[in-house]
Amino acid sequence: MGIFSLLVNLALSAKTIRLWKFKYLLGSLIVSAIVTLEEFSQIFVSGRTFDAGDLTVDFAGIVIFGEIARFLLGRFNRS
Protein backbone atom coordinates (compact mmCIF):
# COMPACT_ATOMS: atom_id res chain seq x y z
CA MET A 1 0.00 0.00 0.00
CA GLY A 2 2.96 2.28 0.50
CA ILE A 3 3.97 2.04 -3.16
CA PHE A 4 0.33 2.64 -4.16
CA SER A 5 0.35 5.77 -1.98
CA LEU A 6 3.64 6.93 -3.49
CA LEU A 7 2.34 6.56 -7.03
CA VAL A 8 -1.00 8.24 -6.36
CA ASN A 9 0.67 11.15 -4.57
CA LEU A 10 3.19 11.56 -7.39
CA ALA A 11 0.36 11.50 -9.94
CA LEU A 12 -1.48 14.20 -7.97
CA SER A 13 1.73 16.25 -7.52
CA ALA A 14 1.47 15.82 -3.73
CA LYS A 15 -1.65 18.00 -3.61
CA THR A 16 -2.71 18.75 -0.04
CA ILE A 17 -6.09 19.54 1.43
CA ARG A 18 -6.82 21.19 4.74
CA LEU A 19 -9.07 19.40 7.21
CA TRP A 20 -9.58 21.13 10.52
CA LYS A 21 -6.15 22.54 11.41
CA PHE A 22 -4.07 20.00 9.51
CA LYS A 23 -2.92 19.55 5.92
CA TYR A 24 -3.17 16.07 4.43
CA LEU A 25 -1.93 14.62 1.16
CA LEU A 26 -4.96 14.03 -1.03
CA GLY A 27 -3.48 10.87 -2.52
CA SER A 28 -2.83 9.41 0.91
CA LEU A 29 -6.42 10.11 1.97
CA ILE A 30 -7.76 8.41 -1.17
CA VAL A 31 -5.55 5.36 -0.67
CA SER A 32 -6.45 5.23 3.05
CA ALA A 33 -10.16 5.19 2.21
CA ILE A 34 -9.71 2.38 -0.33
CA VAL A 35 -7.57 0.32 2.05
CA THR A 36 -10.00 0.80 4.94
CA LEU A 37 -12.99 -0.26 2.84
CA GLU A 38 -11.09 -3.27 1.53
CA GLU A 39 -10.00 -4.39 4.98
CA PHE A 40 -13.47 -3.98 6.52
CA SER A 41 -15.05 -5.81 3.57
CA GLN A 42 -13.13 -8.89 4.67
CA ILE A 43 -15.51 -9.19 7.63
CA PHE A 44 -18.26 -10.19 5.19
CA VAL A 45 -16.23 -12.56 2.99
CA SER A 46 -15.90 -16.17 4.12
CA GLY A 47 -12.33 -17.36 4.15
CA ARG A 48 -11.02 -13.84 4.85
CA THR A 49 -10.49 -12.20 8.21
CA PHE A 50 -10.30 -8.58 9.33
CA ASP A 51 -6.93 -7.77 10.89
CA ALA A 52 -6.41 -4.45 12.69
CA GLY A 53 -2.65 -5.03 12.67
CA ASP A 54 -2.67 -5.31 8.90
CA LEU A 55 -4.66 -2.09 8.64
CA THR A 56 -2.21 -0.32 10.98
CA VAL A 57 0.79 -1.40 8.91
CA ASP A 58 -1.02 -0.31 5.73
CA PHE A 59 -1.58 3.15 7.23
CA ALA A 60 2.08 3.39 8.24
CA GLY A 61 3.16 2.58 4.68
CA ILE A 62 0.70 5.10 3.26
CA VAL A 63 2.02 7.87 5.50
CA ILE A 64 5.71 7.07 5.00
CA PHE A 65 5.54 6.69 1.23
CA GLY A 66 3.25 9.73 0.94
CA GLU A 67 5.93 11.80 2.65
CA ILE A 68 8.55 10.31 0.31
CA ALA A 69 6.43 11.49 -2.64
CA ARG A 70 6.23 14.98 -1.11
CA PHE A 71 10.00 15.00 -0.59
CA LEU A 72 10.76 13.82 -4.13
CA LEU A 73 8.46 16.36 -5.75
CA GLY A 74 9.89 19.15 -3.60
CA ARG A 75 13.41 18.15 -4.53
CA PHE A 76 12.70 17.95 -8.29
CA ASN A 77 10.68 21.18 -8.34
CA ARG A 78 13.61 23.13 -6.89
CA SER A 79 15.92 22.17 -9.74
- H/E element order: HEEHH
Let me know the average pLDDT: 93
β content, as a range? 5-15%
Q: Sheet bearing the most strands, described?
A: 2 strands, antiparallel
Indicate how many domains the architecture comprises. 1
Quaternary organisation of the protein chains: single chain
Radius of gyration from CA coordinates? 14 Å
| Annotation, overall tally of beta strands | 2
- Residues in helices, as a percent range: 55-70%
Strand order of the largest sheet: 1-2
Describe the structure.
The chain is mainly alpha-helical and 79 residues long. It has one domain (2-78). Helix content is 67%, strand content 10%. The protein contains three helices and two strands. The chain has helices at 2-11, 26-41, 52-78, and strands at 16-19, 22-25. The chain has a two-stranded antiparallel ribbon with strand order 1-2. A hairpin with a 2-residue loop joins strand 1 and strand 2. The longest helix is centred in the C-terminal third of the chain and has 27 residues, at 52-78. The radius of gyration is 14 Å and the shape is elongated.
